[in-house]
């Protein structure tokens, strides 16, 4: 039998690349029909038969037997005298089926066909992968760490597809070892050099959203909805939730008995503090809840400029600002407002204060920027904190802090 075994060309693909068999057979058929057109001009009188199980391929040529001298189309007709050389019992009017020896195409043509086949199947693989993961964007996936690099981690899914977890999408406390299983969310699918690149994320708010769906059945069932999530990965997150059933406490359902539901998520996020609050359309109440764990004394809200001045007792200011200013930053993101925190004076009036910008002649700009980064943008906001607290929250040395406090205090003494 004149046939060519194509196992080497596509056996490895048909089992591992998620390409369905009819599609694979159609690709092989198309590749060899192209080969036929190059040699015979037309492929109309040829049948390409693919046995995907064995990896065999046969090409059958069929022509009508006509009287000698009456052959009008050599591609579709054959003279009787030629037909009887193949089989003596043939008669005029019958159809001659003849197997084409693939080797007749020549080694170069066969090699080109195999290369074209591999290329077509490679394109099919890319398209299958692209569609599969494009449809799964926003889903949680568990994948195995295959390689750890400085700027990214390469993971493999259960089918051996490569996934990328960039450094920018990793929680700062993340540490991965080869062979370890890692949970993350499918962030997006990029095309690089015409090949799909699946990007994962552990810092996306969507990751926390999906973890809550897994741990809290009420969210999965639609009884509780997550209105908004803001995160500072590895530090703190704020989740605003709302219940569609008055009998269900959304915060209690998310936290669980003695924190049973939230603890697993906190561990997954490397001990990220998660504040779950009740969503409300009352913006003042939302601001109050968003600054948890601090307790507000009173506030002044300007809806037109989307600005709020919040006043708290001295011991609540640092709680409202949070470590490195994270708490107030997340509160601003959650409410969509620009929030400023002030220390409430004993008489209920705002104390005299001086903006740090007024001290640029005496204090270096980088020191002022460092203080503003942690929410200290006025002189009194710094003097209200102990040197030890400032040292803990900033990258400043204690000598710099003491000198800074001296400059600020002298200004108040002169006033």
From TrEMBL:
Which terms are listed as keywords in the entry?
Cytoplasm, RNA-binding, Transcription, Transcription antitermination, Transcription regulation, Transcription termination
Q: Does the keyword Glycosyltransferase apply?
A: no
Q: Which GO terms describe its biological process?
A: DNA-templated transcription termination; transcription antitermination
Q: Which GO terms describe its cellular component?
A: cytosol
Tell me which SUPFAM superfamilies the record gives. Nucleic acid-binding proteins (SSF50249), Prokaryotic type KH domain (KH-domain type II) (SSF54814), Transcription factor NusA, N-terminal domain (SSF69705)
GO function terms (MF aspect): DNA-binding transcription factor activity; RNA binding
Compartment(s) of residence: Cytoplasm
Does this entry carry the keyword Transcription?
A: yes
Q: Which Pfam families match?
A: KH_NusA_1st, KH_NusA_2nd, NusA_N
Q: Where is the Transcription factor NusA first KH domain?
A: 202-279
Ranges for domain NusA-like second KH come to 284-346
| Residue ranges of domain Transcription factor NusA N-terminal in the record | 5-126
Its quaternary organisation is: Monomer. Binds directly to the core enzyme of the DNA-dependent RNA polymerase and to nascent RNA.
Q: Which PANTHER family match?
A: TRANSCRIPTION TERMINATION FACTOR NUSA, TRANSCRIPTION TERMINATION_ANTITERMINATION PROTEIN NUSA
Cited function: Participates in both transcription termination and antitermination.
> Which HAMAP family does UniProt cross-reference here?
NusA_B (MF_00945_B)
Return the similarity comment.
Answer: Belongs to the NusA family.
- The protein here is known as Transcription termination/antitermination protein NusA
Recorded source organism is: Limnovirga soli
The protein's gene is named nusA
